[in-house]
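To whoever is on call:

I kicked off a structure prediction for a single chain this morning and the downstream step that reads the tokens threw a length-mismatch warning. I double-checked the sequence; it's 512 residues and nothing unusual in it as far as I can see. Pasting both halves so you can look.
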Amino acid sequence: MTSAKRLKSYSMPQTIVLVLLRMVIGWHFLYEGVAKLFTPGWSSASYLDLSRWIFHDFFSSIVANPLTLKIVDILNVGGLVLIGLALLLGLFTRFAAIMGMLLLLLYYVAHPPFVGMGFGFPTEGNYLVVDKNLVEFFALAVVVLFPTTSLAGFKRIYNFFVRKKTAAAGSDVIKPTAEQVRPDVGRREVLKSLATLPALGGFVYAVMKKRGWESYERRHLAEGVDAVTSATVKSFDYTSLQELKGPTPIGRIGDLELSRMILGGNLIGGWAHARDLIYVDKLVKSYHSKEKIFETFLLAEKCGINCFLTNPILCQVIEEYWRRRIGAIKFISDCAYKGDVITGIKMSIDSGAHSCYVQGGIADSLVSNGEIDVIAKSLDLIRKSGLPAGIGAHALATVKACVDAGLQPDYWMKTLHQTNYWSASPTEQHDNIWCTEPDETIAYMQALPQPWIAFKVLAAGAIRPNVGFQYAFQNGADFICVGMYDFQIVDDVNIALEALAASEGRLRPWRT
């Protein structure tokens, strides 16, 4: 049955719905392509890398080859745009629909919503076997089986001119009727064919509106707005993995190999030192879905950061990351679990921690209460499991008391940052300062033989990385623990590399 005959068998409501179905799918494909095209640094790398099903090795091989990944990204964006245009305008729609089905099938097999294969926090909706890719796949199957370009689409113009040319040449292959070559019929066909143009115009207008297409008057007004304080005139861009200057160097604590920069867990776990910004904790927790955490881990590993430091509460997330074989990031636990360090140690060891230490706030409290023996018992318990054992501290007095008591951890976790940032000025501390004696800390730690992991080196975001990293490494830290969002990781690693290179002549020898 030809398309024209098939269309005659449709009722008017059926025809309208079929045409709209084709056009809305085309709109969606086209915008997906345009959005990726105009997103700085967009790449399919993380999507492919996080694939867990049967084609995991194939997708990983694409990501491992920069040239292949670039080609795949271009084909992905170009395919979405061309398929979208064809479906929206009604030109070569059967071929476009089939190509769209193949593309959706690749999306589906990369991340099938099967039981036990998802991250637990889908980016949109709740899926079980059926997701939006599968729904749109079968919607395109309808477009293939029930074509509508003979009613509304540029294919009508193509067919019309083919018939006219054939008729003018006197071909015996196609013999148009008198009605088909009448001028008024031709005009009607052209008008019907152009019926999809308003949809394309609407698409262009919507995209420009969304991306901030402004009139001359609005641009003129914006010129008078302070670019520092106006969020409306700023764009958000961040450094891509391709701009990484090199992987993070490796050091050692005993037999444990650790990157010089360690990924801190406060931001990922939602424990943000936000001072008096009361909305930040909720914002951080909302941003760090399980999928986003996995993406952050994977990006960190690609930058050479091989360790994540957090508390036992996030053990399940790390275990799932390992179980899905997404990556193999190491895990140092601070063992802080409802104030019970011994329980925290046992939970951490059972969850596969590579090292444990007594969290700084807990150690400060134990020393202040005269309970150094609890710290000693903690070190023994950790070492019995064959793991490096550490002691954390915010206060230098805690480190001194442990040394005086004869405790010899495998490493120290001690805060280090300058105190010349503006929010450190109040004499009474309100979650605004973590190293009250930086000079004394630097001098005392210089004589200790154990490795030193410095944390709070940015004073919870009050100090710029290029200042805080340099200060920590230059003044004796062997490692730094830094909380980072995914969009900060590449920049921070590049800054850390520069800080390490500039710290070769420091006074304290490297203790790793």
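Update from on-call: the warning came from a stale cache, not from the record. Cleared it. Sanity check on the structure: Confidence is low (pLDDT under 50) at residues 119-123, 176-185, 213-236.
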